[in-house]
Amino acid sequence: MIIKSIAKKDRKTKELVNRLHVGEIAVINHRDIDEVAANCLVDCKPKLIINADQSISGRYPNLGPNVLQNAGIPILDHVGLEAFDMIQEDDILEIIDEEIYRNGEFIGKGQLLTEELIQMKLAETEKNFEYELDKFIENTLDYAKKEKEFILGSLKLPEIKTVFQNRHVLVVVRGQNYKEDLHAIKSYIDEFNPILIGVDGGGDALLEFGYTPDMIVGDMDSVSDKCLLICKEIVVHAYPDGRAPGLTRVESLNKKAVIFPAPGTSEDIAMLLAFDKGADLIVAVGTHSNMVDFLEKGRKGMASTFLVRLKVGSKLIDAKGVNKLYKESVKIKHLVGLLMGAMIPIFIVGIMSPPVQQLLKLLQIKLKFIFGM
């Protein structure tokens, strides 16, 4: 394998994809590449991924490397932080087999992830999955005890302009299969006109489908300036002690924002906000709903998510995977039934018309003559 191209480098994959172009080399430091990050990389069509960390560490079966492999994008894995630090933005890198060079200078070496190697690593994760599950449960219960008062009791909600009372609310996170699910519920959005909340990059997901977010909720680390400028209201997720790093970015755009100090994830507080402000129904797209989702999010325990789901469950519908319900193609029998149904009123109108009635009478007379009736 010989690959030569311009390097684009970032420790955060979600920020790198904003400036990564077709045919370039993506240099990342991403342990356990998740599906969402992998799909974002695939959209950019890089020539190669160089990962300083392990793309599959063995903790859980993350499917990001599979996504990249299926898209024909090779991964040079686990090259180390020393090589990562040596590589600079816009360097011209040449990869010969599994070695990295810059102007003939050796930078480092990694391991090329083949399809067989990826499958072998994923098989090994099954051995650790039960252990990770035990850690996840223990950690979640521990955090649940600490956070229950914030989530279920004394959490102070900010004053906002958006009116949720008796409205449907759509909460969009740019998570796994969000595009397919948004497409599947497009008719629902158009018919019910729900309040549209984008959780960080979920705001840009709404823009992709031609919708303007009513509200952006998050720490503002993965939403575009364009989305922040055109959305109707911004809620910055702050730490429980009130620190809100994301506020600086909003203010730099001359936009106003509401601060919401709370534990947990931004998608949690978006749901809490909608629920406690009187929403009639909350529809979630791309949100985290299983253990792999939680582990990909990077928290050992997702107590707040667990508690929030308990609180808002009576009004929450998770749209994750809804697109799979609509994948069956239209069958011939359905088309025949539809055609027959459409012909019935045409037939009735036809036989009621005077010319057709005269024709039927002539036919009746001819039949009587033939059979001697």
TrEMBL record:
Pfam families membership: SteA-like_C
One GO biological process term: thiamine diphosphate biosynthetic process
SUPFAM superfamilies according to UniProt: Thiamin pyrophosphokinase, catalytic domain (SSF63999)
Keywords, ordered alphabetically: ATP-binding, Kinase, Membrane, Nucleotide-binding, Transferase, Transmembrane, Transmembrane helix
Keyword Magnesium carried by entry: no
SteA-like C-terminal domain boundaries: 320-368
A GO term, aspect molecular function: ATP binding
InterPro entries from the UniProt entry: Put_SteA-like, SteA-like_C, TPK_catalytic_sf
Transmembrane segments: 335-353
Listed name of the protein: Putative membrane-anchored protein
